[in-house]
Amino acid sequence: MLSWGVIEYGDEISSAGEYTHALEAIKWGTDYFIKAHTHPNVLWVEVGDGDTDHYCWQRPEDMTTSRQAYKVDEKNPGSDVAGETAAAMAAASIVFRKTNPHYSHLLLQHAEQLFEFGDKFRGKYDESVRVVKGYYPSVSGFKDELLWAALWLYKATDKEDYLRYALEKANEFGGITWAITEFSWDVKFPALQIIASMLLTEENHREMGFKLVFEQYRSKAEYYLCACLNKNNGSNVNRTPAGLLYIRQWNNMQYVSNAAFLLTVYSDYLRASNQRLRCDRGKVGPEEVLLFARSQADYILGANPMGMSYLVGYGSRYPQRMHHRGASIESYRENKGFIGCTQGYDYWYPRNDPNPNAVVGALVGGPDHMDRFSDDRKNFMQTEACTYNTASLVGVLAKLHGVEEEDGYLKTPLLASS
């Protein structure tokens, strides 16, 4: 998602002076993926396990718990995690194409191998690596990740075989049958439907004989976008009283930042192709789509009933007791004594004091369905943060930074509740 943001909004990120930082952040992740992909059909997918990790409240400097590593391979497949990693590396290869062509080529090699592995040896990785079952169960299965990977590989290589894969398997794999209102670390359908539908206007694709499949992809993409905008006659995404999209109580902000990103990207597509979004309750122009995405970003940054920025380090008021081991315990520079698992839980975890370290840029889980938020370390559903929360938000903020000065465009303050 961070790579996608850089692909779409690299100029805006550059003008904010953050382009090098974005590339460093992406490479930090893709370097790890390269190391984890030790053989064409072997991917190391987890280090440590959730049970022993959750038993410990400990800063990383002191960790002594078992760090067993787990892999997927031919006998223990993991098509979802292989497909997702392939998609990530393919997207990153586009980012590095000009600045680091050798690295870009290396990423592409790994991405193609991983896709082939995931497609040839099919299975869910939570069936092969049982320790993930209680923490990262693959509810949507692996077919969405294979379609997602194929589309990113097509974007990275221009090889028609990858696009043909996504089109020929669109029905069997649910790409044109699932109408879904959630895009998340597990469920990729809305995003891949949006990518596929944006390819429809490209001239060379019209000759492939898949116009109907492209149209069906677009129909499902529109269903998701219209659900976010509350423009479907059927199922729409719930909202809090103040207008925040609300999917579920645990880490709801991931769905908000992801939706805001997809809406932002699609608003640009609508503007560039001179189209309007077709919803049950009427057509929607690109400005309205982007204004709603902005309303979600504004809410995250403090335009909400709590007056709270949910992006740690931003604004005058943000969560001080994030559910994060490294943040909540003094660093080794300040306290050189060994802090064990139970000692962390006994002393540091229950403290009412603010965390000694701020994880700047972390987007926490956010408020409940009534816009209420409790800044409590033990309230992990609301105060835990994830990298995939922030990654999507980068592109949204970059876009909004870029259009800030355009005459009349996004000038009108828009509260989500309006």
Quick overview of this protein structure:
With 418 residues, the protein is mainly alpha-helical.
Structure description:
Belongs to the glycosyl hydrolase 9 (cellulase E) family. It catalyses: Endohydrolysis of (1->4)-beta-D-glucosidic linkages in cellulose, lichenin and cereal beta-D-glucans. One of its GO terms (biological process) is cellulose catabolic process. There is one protein chain. With 418 residues, the chain is mainly alpha-helical. It folds into 3 domains: 1-13 and 28-50 and 66-169, no CATH class; 185-301, no CATH class; 320-392, no CATH class. The chain is built from 16 helices and 6 strands. It has helices at residues 2-15, 19-36, 50-55, 79-95, 101-120, 125-128, 143-157, 160-168, 189-198, 211-228, 253-272, 286-301, 325-328, 341-348, 380-383, 387-403, and strands at residues 43-47, 69-72, 238-239, 245-246, 277-279, 282-284. The strands form 3 sheets. The chain has a two-stranded antiparallel ribbon with strand order 1-2. A hairpin with a 5-residue loop joins strand 3 and strand 4. Helix 4 runs antiparallel to helix 5 (101-120) and helix 11 (253-272) runs antiparallel to helix 12. The longest helix has 20 residues, at 101-120. The chain starts with a helix and ends in a 15-residue tail after the last helix.
Q: Which percent range fits the helix content?
A: 40-55%
Q: Report the principal-axis shape.
A: globular
Give the count of helical stretches: 16
Structural Rg: 22 Å
End-to-end distance = 29 Å
The helix-strand sequence is HHEHEHHHHHHHEEHEEHHHHH
Structural class: mainly alpha
Share in β-strands: under 5%
Strand order of the largest sheet: 1-2
Keywords: Carbohydrate metabolism, Cellulose degradation, Glycosidase, Hydrolase, Polysaccharide degradation
Family: Belongs to the glycosyl hydrolase 9 (cellulase E) family.
Organism: Gossypium gossypioides
Enzyme class: hydrolase
